[in-house]
Amino acid sequence: MLDLFSQGIVNIFTQPTVLLLAVLGVVVGIVVGALPGLTATMGVALLLPITFGMEPVAGLLLLSGVYFGGIYGGSITAILLRTPGTPAAAATAIDGYALTKKGMAGKALTVATISSFTGGTISILILMFLAPILANFALKFSAPESFALALFGISIIASISGTSLIKGLIAGTAGLLVATVGLDPIQGFPRFTGGITDIMNGIPFIPVMIGLFAASEAFKSLEEMNITEKVKTKIQRFMISKADVKKIWPSILRSTGLGTFIGIIPGAGADIAAFVSYNEAKRFSKNKEEYGEGSLEAVAACESGANACTGGALVPLLTLGIPGDSVTAVMLGALMVQGLQPGPMLFKDNGDLVYTLFSGMIICYVAMLIIGLFAARYFAKVVEIPKAILTPVILMLCVVGSYAINNNLFDVLIMLVAGIIGYFMQKFDFPASPVVLAIILGPMVESQFRRALTLSNGNYDIFYTRPITLVLLLLSLLTLLTPIIKKIWQTNKDSKDESVRL
Amino acid sequence: MTWFLIEVKKLLAKQIDISISLALIVIGAIIIHTSRSFPGAQGADVGASFFPVILSSLLIFLSLLLILTSIKNKSVETRTAGKSEWKKVVFGMALTFIYFILLIYLGYVAATPIFLAAMMWIFNYRRIVQVVFWSLLITGIIYACFAMLLQVPLPSGVFFS
């Protein structure tokens, strides 16, 4: 494994374009992350179309750079302006901004950068060791297991990503229905195509993704157009002392472990990781009273937790083809654009590519560390870009990007429709990521289900006599039932509390 | 009957979730109806209509559940944007659509500055020199990045090709 890894490093350093693209990705990612309202998901979705013509490693590293930079970039504006650029940085804003008020903005930025780098890099290393083992295990999967796995992926994201379980499930089901458009996978019968040849092979998911994750956000930002902020804080004193390092070190390591673990669980992303890390760091800390008042430990915990999530989230994506959140769903799209089907076969057929990718990801994090240490304060300036310019540019990029995938204006139309639907979904609390995931995994769910039944001669026993399939299906059921059980438990508890009070 | 219609109307106005659910139920029913003409089970295969029918039934079931829960939750949520904000969003969507049409005919180079300038103008960014400057500059930068540096195709428009 180590020789594959070092070979990967060599591969990248001998290809300056790849290296350059990775660094560029990190820069774009930090900008996107620092801008409130723009998330890592949106950045990756917007840049995805331009990677189409690139070499797989180059394109994927560019997007990885945007992904990592996007998670980290949110902390800069969180610390300096108390406006978290991304949801994951909301926890960082609490103590980060308190530090800025104390005149310790420089120190806070340095700690955030080092923690993000450490969390991210360690998580990639864990990914590198864990992924092949999991992939090896998943190699035994046949049709019924693949069906159960895809179903599990959709059910978990549907039950977690929204405010309401029913709405999440409706979003997932609607996405699965959209996925049935086009030729059916076994008989080749055209379904719901209305004679339009462009959708014979299904509704293309990349325009849908750009529409739901980028255009809809841009439409939403039209609502609040006239807010611009200025960075007034004078930032100095970037150096952290040995005592500081000693103080934050345990918190970084703990959060890295937590973040990676949370990342691996499908459905939980960087924002959850950041908050859990914050809470745990506080619980274990000797300086609890500092939390909320400007604690470097807290900043370190949130940032390492959030960035450790990246490596973790890539584990199920690369080994099983199951993305755990919206960014990795877009990354799945990026892999498929390159003709790579994530899953156990990826490691068998494209092993050297995967390790080059891992090495490149670590290089992305090193680039992020260097850029962050020297230039973090300048990135805060991006919030001064007027929204009246930024929003039109994003919409233009959505249009141009969805055209560029296939040189097809029909894709632009799909993107627009998805963008408008996405805007209203957001307005009425329907989550977008189950739709996207269901459109991507839907064809797999259906074809593997039908293939499984063909294998068993139409006998449904095949879904509960095979242990892995049974476990995965039970897990899906459990995922769906957990929020309901929790709610019933909660109401019972509430009514009990009330009766006590009465 | 009229009483019923009035009641339905009231419910629609009161609860957006209910109207969305009703729309989804209608869509589900249409899908089930359409799927009936698909080839059915053949041997061990469940056929092309199986998944659409199962999923639409699920969609209808979930929509009914959503109706039930929104009736039970008496609190009417206020989450609609103010009037002027709605207008801006609709304008933005319409302009993007017009941009799409313009791309078909004029192509990227001619359509993009018009779109960017119109967007900025409508959203109260009205210093003419700056609007012109930014829209041309951004069009140029994206053109340079996409068409020249990355070799990504941009629409050229039917008039100019």
UniProtKB/TrEMBL annotation, chain A:
Highest taxon of source: Bacteria
Transmembrane intervals: 20-48, 60-81, 109-135, 147-179, 199-219, 256-278, 353-376, 388-406, 412-442, 463-485
Residue ranges of every copy of the DUF112 domain listed in the record: 19-437
Keywords per UniProt: Membrane, Transmembrane, Transmembrane helix
InterPro entries reported for this sequence: DUF112_TM (IPR002823)
Pfam families tied to this protein: TctA
Stated name of the protein: Tripartite tricarboxylate transporter permease
Biological source species: Fictibacillus norfolkensis
Automatic annotation (TrEMBL), chain B:
Domain DUF1468 as annotated: residue spans: 20-155
Organism domain of life: Bacteria
Sequence intervals crossing the membrane: 12-34, 46-68, 89-122, 128-150
InterPro entries: DUF1468
Keyword tags: Membrane, Transmembrane, Transmembrane helix
Protein's recorded name: Tripartite tricarboxylate transporter TctB family protein
Organism annotation: Fictibacillus norfolkensis
